[in-house]
Amino acid sequence: MECCLAFIELDNVTYTYPVPGAAPQPALRGISLRIAEGEYVAIVGANGSGKSTLARMLNALLLPTGGAVRVAGWDTRDAAAHQEIRRIVGMVFQRPEDQLVAATVAEDVAFGPENLGLPPADIRARVEEALETVGMADLWERPPTLLSAGQMQRVALAGVLAMRPRCIVFDEATAMLDPGGRRAVRAMLRRMHTLGLTLVVVTHFMEEAVDADRVIVLERGRVALDDAPAAVFSNAQPLHALGLTLPPVAVLAESLRARVPTLPPGLLTIPALAAALDALPHHAPPLSPIAAPPPSPPAAPLIDMRHLAHTYLAGTPLASPSLRDASLTVAAGGAHGLLGATGAGKSTLMQHLNALLRPQSGAVRVGDFDLNDPAVDVRAVRRYVGLSFQMPEMQIFEQYVGDEIAYGPRLLGLTRTELRARVRWAMTLVGLDFDAFKDRLTFTLSGGERRKVALAATLALQPAILLLDEPTAGLDPAARADLLDRLAALRETGVTLLLSSHQMEDVARLTEQVTALAQGVNALSGPVNEVFAQSDTLHALGLDTPVIGQLVDVLRARGWSLPPTSLSVDDLCSWLLSENFSTD
Amino acid sequence: MSEFEFLRSFAVGQYLPTGSLIHRLDPRARLLAGSLLLVTLAVTRQWLGVIVGLGVVLVGLALARIPLRYALRSLLTPLPFIVLLALIQLFFSFHDPAAVPVWTLGPVRVYATGIGAAALLTLRFMALILLLSLWTFCLSSSELVRGLEALFRPLKALGLPTQDLVLAVQTTLHFMPLLAREAERIAKAQASRGAEWGTGRGGLLRRARQMLPILLPLFLTALQRAETLALAMEARGYRGRGRTSLMELRWRWADSVALAAALVLAPAILWI
Description:
The complex is a heterodimer.
Chain A: E1 8-16, E2 26-35, E3 40-44, H1 51-57, E4 66-71, E5 74-75, H2 82-88, E6 89-92, H3 105-115, H4 120-133, H5 149-161, E7 167-171, H6 179-194, E8 198-202, H7 206-210, E9 214-219, E10 222-227, H8 229-232, H9 236-241, H10 248-259, H11 270-279, E11 303-312, E12 320-330, E13 335-339, H12 346-353, E14 361-366, E15 369-370, H13 378-384, E16 385-388, H14 401-411, H15 416-430, H16 434-437, H17 447-459, E17 465-469, H18 477-492, E18 496-500, H19 504-510, E19 513-518, E20 521-527, H20 528-531, H21 535-540, H22 547-557, H23 569-573
Parallel strand pairs in A: 3-8, 3-9, 6-7, 7-8, 13-18, 13-19, 16-17, 17-18
Antiparallel strand pairs in A: 1-2, 1-4, 4-5, 9-10, 11-12, 11-14, 14-15, 19-20
Chain B: H1 27-43, H2 47-63, H3 68-73, H4 79-92, E1 103-105, E2 108-110, H5 112-138, H6 141-156, H7 162-192, H8 204-210, H9 212-235, H10 253-271
Antiparallel strand pairs in B: 1-2
C-alpha cells in the first residue's frame, strides 16, 4: 500500500458551501480516505452528514476548499484533468427524471460518449453494449419520460457505463424506487462489482450498505466509522447516536435473539439468519387449532370505493389510463396500506378520496360524502380527508413555520386564539415544540423537520382521514423511525390512515389491512399478514415482503412447514426447542 | 375536465411520434422550411397570403397525421390575448378620415378597415400558433438539437458558443412538461390544505393570490431541478465543445422537395 498511490485518495479534505451573508458551515471537516480499485464501499450517515458532498468530491463536481482529492493520480483541482476524471468516475443521481437529458433512451446513453468526441460508430457500439449490460437493449427509441423510475435509473447507469468508467458513484440512486426497481438496481450493483468496477454507494438503506465490502459512516462532515459491515452493524447503540439504525434483517435477528439467547450475534442477511435458526435444535410444533379470526364489525366502512377507473388526459392522443378497476374499503379508525409498483395508480386512487380527481367511472363514498355527486362540497371533503403528497416539504411556501401550518386553518376563518391553539396542537402531534419552532424560518430546518412541518400543515385541518403518499421517502433512518412512531401515535387518536409506501417494513408496522394495485387493478387485498404471505405474487408485481416474510420463505425452503400467514417472531420461536430459551 | 390537468392546455411543446412523412424528413429540412413559413406568415401584409399560409399549415397537420381537434386545442390558451388584440385592432386601427363607420354606438365607431385588420390579425395568429404546434408535434427535442447544431455549425467559426445555445433550447423544451406536471402536483397539494383550487370559487384578485403558494414552491423546484441537471451533465463530461453525435443526419431527395416547396410558398405568402 505504501509504495504506490491508491485509486482514490482524500487527504484531510474540507469543504464549505459558499453561503452569502451567513456563518460558513463546513460540510466536510478533514476527511482522509483511501479507496482501492475494485472496492465496494457504502457511505451512510444522517441527513446533513456530508455524504453527497463527499460523493461529489470524487468526480470533481465539487473541489475541496482544503486538502486534496486524487483520482487515479489526477488531482481534482487541476481543471485540465476534469474530463478525464469524469470519464473514470461516473455518477448516478437520486432523482431519475432530473438526470436524463435527451429525448430517447439511446441518445441519453450516448450523451457521455458524445462529450468525449468519439466517432458515431464507436458511440453506437458503446450505447448498444451499455444498454445490453443493464438489460434495456429493446427500449432504444423509447422517450425516457415513458419509463418507470427503476428503468430510468438503469438508463442513467447505462449512460455512465458507456463512458467505460473505472468507478461508479451512486448518490442515493434507489431512494425513489419501488421494491422491484430497487432489487434490479441492487442486482446491477453486484454485477458491476464482479466486473471489477469500483463502487461507491451513498444510501439511507442500511440493507444496501450490507452488500458492500466496507461501510463508511459520516457524522457532521467527519468519518465516524470505517469498517466491514459486520463490524459497523454489530451494535445498535452507537448507530443510533449517529442517526442510523440497524438493517431490517439485523433488527429482526436482534428481536429473535432477545427471546433466543443461543442465536449467534452479527446476522445481517436473510440466508445467514435462516441458516443460524435452522442450526438450532428445532421441531415442528404440535398443531394448535387455528383461532378463528375475530368477527369483523359490521359497521359501514368509512371509505368505500368501487370499480373506480380514471384516464389522464382523456380524449387526447396522450391519454393514459391510470386506474382501470380499483376497489377499496377502509373501516373507521383503521389503518390501510396501499402497495404497488411505480405507475400502478396509488397516487391517482388517493386523489379521488379528497376530490382532487372526480370519478370518471365507478363509485366513491368517503364518510357521508358521495363523491360521484357533482354538487358535493369539495372544501368540506378536503377538510375531512387530509392528503399529504410525496416529499410534502417541497410545497412549503411561507417564511415562518407557524404561518405555514396556519395556512389551511386560516382559510377556514378561525379566530386568532383558535388558530394559535390549532397550530400548537398540530405541532405537538408531529413532535415539534410550539414555542421553539413557530418562529423558525422554514428554509433553515433539516429535511426531517421540514417533513414534520408539512405533515402538521395537513393535520392542522383536523382531518378524520389522513392519506399519506410515501411519507418516509428520502428521510434518513432516524427521522424515518421517528415519523413512523408519530404516525402510530396519531392512529391512536382515532384518525383513519391510508398509507402508500414502497417500504414494506413501514406498511407491516403501521397497517392491518393492505391492498396491492397492479396497472390500476386490485391485485391483492386483505389482512396484512395474509397479503405479505404471498411472496411470489408480490415479487411478480414488483413488490416485496417484509424481512420476516423473506426469512419465512427461506426457512420453508429448508423444510420448516410454517403455516402460510406466520409472520411473527412468536411463530418462529414456537419451532425452537425449549433448551434454546434457557438463559445460561 | 379537471382544473388541475395543466398538461392538457399544453398542446404546444408535445412531441407526437406518428411516424408520418413529415416526421421522417431531415430535421434541417423541417427547421428551414418551418422558419421560412414562420417568418413570411409573420410579416406578410396580404390577405390571400395569410390564407394560403393557413392552408399550408392545415395540409401539414394532415400530412403529419395530427388529429385536427388536438391541434386546435393549442389555440385555447392564447385565445384571450388574440381576442384582446383583435378588439384593439377593431376599434383603434387607422382609417381614412373620409371613411363612413360601418357601425356606431355612442363614441365607438367601427370602420371597415378595422374589421379587416382584426380579421387579418386573428387569422395570422391562428396560422402562426398552429404552425408552431405542428413544428413541435413533428420535431422531437433531440432532432431540434441535431438540426440546430448542424445549421449553426458555420457560426462556430465566428466564435459563437453555438452548442451552449442549442443546449439551452433543448433543456427548456425538456423542462416545460416537467414543470407543468410539477405545477399540477403543487396545486393539488395546496388544494388538499384548503386552498381554493379546483373549487371554482373566487374572483380574479383572489385567484391571483392563490398563485403564490404554487409559484414559490414551483420556482424553488425548478431551480433545484436545473441544478441537478447541470450537475448530471457536468458529471457526464459536458464541456460545450468538442462534441460528436450518435445520429448522423442524411439529406434525402424528399428533404429537397420539402425545402423547395417552402421556397415556392414563401414568396407566394408574401406577395399574392
